Every structure is written in structure tokens, then in C-alpha cells.
Amino acid sequence: MTHKEPTGDYNGFGPGWKATGLTPAEARRATDWVEAKIDRRALLVNKDRVEDIRERMWELEKDGEIVVHRIGDQHEPVVARTLYGWEKKIPTNSLWHHKSCGQCGNIPGYPSSILWLMNKFGIRYLDETDQTSCTAWNYHGSGIGNVVSLAAIFLRNFHQAYVSAQAQGLPVGTYYPLVHCGTSFGNYKEMRIYLMHSAELREQVRKILGKLGRLVDGKLLIPEEIVHYSEWLHVMRHRIREHQVVDCGNLRATIHPACHVYKMVPEDVIYDDTVMDGNRVAVSTGLMQTLGAQVIDYSTWYDCCGFGFRHIIGEREFTRSFAIDRKIKVAVDEARSDVMIGHDTGCITTLDKNQWIGRAVDKVYELPVMADCQFAALACGAHPYKLAQLHWHASPFETLLEKLGIDWQQAKAEFESYLKDVADGRFETLYDPKRAITSGPGFVRQQGDQAA
To answer: Which InterPro entries does the record match to this protein (predicted)?
Structure first.
């Protein structure tokens, strides 16, 4: 077979991608949105008030078209306020972990920190294996995915969360899904809107899920709320503060808010009058402030990290330059930041792992980058290697640990000793792996599951 090189002006994207031929002035106008301040005021001014999609959801349930997975008392919800002041229930207990493929593969300290915090607080949760990817890579990265596939996988995963407790002899709906990935979070919120407005889409998805046995009384199961782990951290931040053992008072922190978290379906995002005067998305910032760190503003706070899905595959030099020049360099030069905190898989990966490329062009701006849950775990005494797993990061973190009063050299020696135990088959787990299998031939019901 003869190999054909990609055609078009942007190799790898196909012949449909052509240079626009814009003048410099036209290009400037076309990209002004990159520097636009997308704070609360900008989202509210001169814009029509959007609908609360949950109102449409209740109507469809009343008409007998769908079933809603409600957040109940067993989930111990805390009410937060969104962009328009609407109430959003954030479940804090009896949670089903919707994990992230990028976290588990690239940043394992991300999910391990979440589980460690929940263990510390005695949170009931299920971390099972019966989950699929959200297909964001297909949709955003290649264009292969479509709305039907995204919507079907969204409801398939949330149906599994709904029925998962049956493996323990508990009622359906006992566990409520907590989404780790910001992209899944944004995609699922969009899919819920599309499903609520399109009878055609609902029927297409119903046929697919019917074949998979993923309907409830022949109806689609729709979640009352779609909840991101950073929202859980936000409403738990004062409880986290009660367990804090590390002084963060001399730390200068910058925040990178993820586009998929707060720019997609912005009306569903939490704002809090006690966080940046209610003018910035509250997650991550509120946590860092509660832990005592000084959160520093910087001019490119609103910018994307540069990941973008499509160009990280085909034009990754754009991603690298954007991450360094628009985010890392600014946070170092303007804010004199000690650490950059984020809440999404792709953002942490991009801002952390692309810093090495700056050395090739004499742009050395070293800045520790980690997720809010990793930092919260560190502040509560988690081991920087065994739990937060900072050694998986490309950006240097030793100076940050020293500023926090954490002896990283001793911690590293402890970790290296632990690795010898792991090699000999002696290892620790955050979660009983037998509880992760809730269906199929490998499942064996455990004694005491009925009372879990």
C-alpha cells in the first residue's frame, strides 16, 4: 500500500483545513476572544438570561418520558449557588467515581488524592471498574464522534452509577456520580441540554441503551445534577481546613480555570460571593484561600491552557508555545507564583509537561503545576510521593515542598524504600480492589456489603 502524506495547509487535519488569508487586523479581531475576560460580570452583561435546563427535565419526567436520578438525603448534599444565583445540590457522600482516562494514565496522584481525602473523611464511595471513556478524544480530537455517541455514553455511565449499589444489596440510586474529568463534565452538561430539547436525539439514544439494557422502566435515566469533583472540594473546603497540618500562609498561588469546567454551560458553574467578590468561578480559588494561600491575579487568568484537543494532536507546537508564553511565563513574571493550581486533566498535563520544551528556546519558566485535590491532600499531610505522586510531574516541585516545610528528601527516601516492598509484593491500597468489580464473572459479593 502506498503511503500518502497528509494534504492541506495544516498537515494532519486533511484537505478541508486551509489558510484563511486574513489580514493582520482581521486576524486580531478574530482572536480577540482569547484575551476576553470571562468573569461573572462579562457573562451577565448584555446577554439574555438562559433557561434552567432542569425545569425542562422536570417537565419530561412528569410527562413520563424520563426518570431523574435524584440527589437524596443519603448523599448529604450541600447547596451552592451558580452564575444566576440558582441553587445546585452538591452531593458529599455515597459517591460513584467517574474517573478520568488522562488522570489515571498521566497523573495518577490526581485520583489517588481524591480517594485519600475521602478515606480521611470517612466518605462512602464506590470506585468500580464498570465505566467507559466519555469519548471526548473522538469528538474534540478527531471529529469521529458525534452527538448521539456522546449522549449515549453519558447516559450509559450514569445508569451504571445508578444501578451499581445492587452489587452490594443496596437500593438503586444509592451512589451518585462524581465526575473527575473537566471535559466529561462539560460534555455531559451539553448532552443533557441536547437530550432535553431533542425528541429525535432521545429516541436515537433510547434505542441504543435499550439494546444494552440501560433503561429504567423503558425510559432514559437523567441526572438531577452533573457534579465535578472540584465542586465537591469547594463545598468541603472548610472541613478540609479542619484536617490541615501544613501552613500555606506564605504561598503565592495562581489558578488556571479549565475551559470545559466554566466556559461550557456557564450557567451551571459555582460562583461564591466570598471568593474574588463572586466575580470568578469559585472552585479551586475558594479552596486555596481557605487553606491560607494568597491567590494572585494575573492578566491571562481567563486564557485556555493551550490544550485544545485537535491541535495538541496535529499542531502541538502551538499548544506548547501558548502554554508557556500565555500562562506559565505570565504567572512567573507577573504574579511571582509559587504554584499553579488547576482542576482538569488536560490543563494539568499541558501546563506541567510542556515546560521542558521552553529550555530548547531559552524560555526557562519553572512553575509547579498540580490539581487542587493534590494540593489539598498535601496540606492535610498526604505523602508527596506515595499519595500525591508528584514524581510523575515534569515541572519541579521540590522548592514548593521546602516552602511548605515538607522534607522532600526524606519523603523520597521513604518512597524508594516502599518501592522495594512493592517489588516484593507488599503494597498498600486506598480501596479494596475486590469492591471495584460489581458485575461479571469476577464479582464475588463480600460479607458485610449489605450494611456498607
So the answer is: Cys_rich_dom, HdrB/HdrD_reductase
